[in-house]
Amino acid sequence: MTTSEPGLPRTRRGDETAFWLVAGHLWSVFAIALSNLFLGLGILASGRRFWATLTAREHRVAMAPLGLYALVLVVAAGASVDPLVSLPSLRELFSLATLPLGLLLVRGRRRALLVCDGLAVVAVASSVWGLLQLLAADGALTRVRGPFSHYMTLAGFLVLVDLVVMARLACDPAARRTWWRWALLVPINLAVVATLTRGAWVALFLGFTLLLLVRARHLLGVFFTVVVVFVLVAPQPVRHRAISTFNPRDPTNYDRLCMLDAGARMVAHHPLTGVGQAMVPQLYPIYRHPTAVRRSVKHLHSTLVQLAAERGLAALVAYLWLMVGAVVAALRHYQTLPSRDGPLPGLYLGVVVALLAFNIGGLFEDNWSDTEVQRVTLFLIALPHALGAGAAAARERIPPVGQPGEPATG
Questions:
Q1: Disulfide check for 292: which of 202, 204, 258, 285 has CB 3.0–4.6 Å away?
Q2: How far is Cα 283 from Cα 265, in angstroms, rounded to an integer?
Q3: If DSSP states are collapsed to H, E and C, what string results for 198-241?
Q4: How far apart are CA 148 and CA 125, in angstroms?
Q5: Please, are residues 352 and 311 in contact by the beta-carbon 8 Å criterion?
Q6: Rg (CA), the chain
Q7: pTM (2 d.p.)
Q8: Cα dihedral 120, 376, 204, 340 sign
Q9: Which band of pLDDT confidence, cut at 50, 70 and 90, is reported for residue 394?
Q10: Tens digits of per-residue pLDDT, 333-371?
Q11: Which pLDDT score, from 0 to 100, does residue 13 have?
């Protein structure tokens, strides 16, 4: 059974189509309607294999926490203080398909690198877009958002991609010899600064520090010196935001402490299923601390608190299980590689630092609720599990799904 290409099985051509659709939905997250279209078509193109992936034994480590998270999502909506308000939030189940599709279709090093390189291109284009917005502001204080709907969404997306690119440069000698890969970092990091998003700054700083601890400890002093000098010579809005990051008297910092207090009391009253999705803005005035700066909020500015308050402690457990499982899998595969140099170690290390940075940023922002950022995060969660499954298949001389005859690890 062949296609128009001699010797190419029809299943492989279908797999290639599904892969490009899934990659396209990640590369177009800045336009969520287009990303939704690609994701839906990717599910259809994967056919029965998508549903088989949900229950495949080799994917249980990744799918078990995702399954629990999805179950809690449905239960929380049904048990909501106002189910009619919460039920539309179940569309998140559609976005969660990014993870099983990643497990199914990104099992070889070549494909993983291709998706990551595409994300880097999108990050550069988004960064340039944002920097042009800054120039167009003609000196006015503007928090750039690029093609995204919000500056925090741009910052969350850029931090993930930035750290994956940095990990590749730290581990792959061939990549370090390619000047344009270094050039990618310039607009990306400038745009992160221009978003004036302090949570993203802290996440990026700690993520890069961890990367240096693992790969180049001798450069830590240089890095810290550069950061201090940059803060001192940076434009006043940037310097003010950086210095105020850990100031508890800063109004926005204090207000977020009040949000944590409100979230804790929501959890105390609704520990199992939370108050329900989309109910935090409606109930916040009831739980609001009397000295809080704002009388109303859209969310609690913390992924962990938002999950526990909206969906209960079970959702928080499922989320942490998902994250920890991916980081542990990436570290395990990284440590068992025969060499720590090359693109594959860079992928594993990139997953570790990016996910840790994402969760550090999530202490200050509800970045998990950003669909655009969530989809990239789900792809990174899938990567170590998918590459590990692909490597096991190669060792057993079983061609990875969709790549007959190609070693999964390159």
A1: 258
A2: 11
A3: HHHHHHHHHHHHHHHHHHCHHHHHHHHHHHHHHHHHCCHHHHHH
A4: 12
A5: no
A6: 22
A7: 0.91
A8: negative
A9: low
A10: 999 999 999 999 999 999 999 999 999 999 989 999 999
A11: 64
